[in-house]
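Give me the fold.
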Amino acid sequence: MTYVLLHGFTGGPASWDAVALPSGARVIRPWLAGHGPSPARPASWGDELERLAALLEAEAVEGAHLVGYSLGGRVGYHLLQRCPERFARATLIGAHPGLDDDEARRARREADARWIRLLREDGLEAFLAEWERLPLWASQARLPAERLAAQRAQREAHAADGLAHALEVLGLAEMPPVAPDALRLPVRLVVGAEDDKHRALSGALASRLPSGRLTVIEGAGHNVVLERPERLAALLTETS
């Protein structure tokens, strides 16, 4: 089995280190736009999909299990539509299905613009100090200090301008809404039990997918990859 793992915003390939996959599995963990030591800088959401599709083609990916968390899950929705022949199934974790209301899109773009200004004017540390205070991460307070330190080290490895570019190109306001009928292969939507917003969104979408189902993970908030990696690994290695 080939797994294609797409990280969340401010994450990276190492975000998946604690998710134990079968020893013989082939694992592809690309950096998403704006992330990493030499961040890709596509000009648009569509350009990022084309870049990733080209990577999958170069790697001759077929019949893979696509796994995406948050930002990676949002990108994953559209890779499933862009190149469905590459995948046999998908697991998308805490992944927003997109905004179909112009006012909501405008409000989100304004909110992202504030984060972009903070990154470019005050730098990465100032941004992280505010980002990590978001209520979205409240459930992480009970995690071991070393796990939170590893997450912070990953975040600090990014460039402020790279993350700003990621928000400009891959922000929720730039994402086309998911077209449920276009997702024909089996899709499992995973959410933490304490992530009320994405639990509601994913539940509504799962009921509209031709082969969709929802799994709620107890003892986790938004970042199931960080908070319950062993439970996630068990889900990813299920055969049905």
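The radius of gyration is 17 Å.
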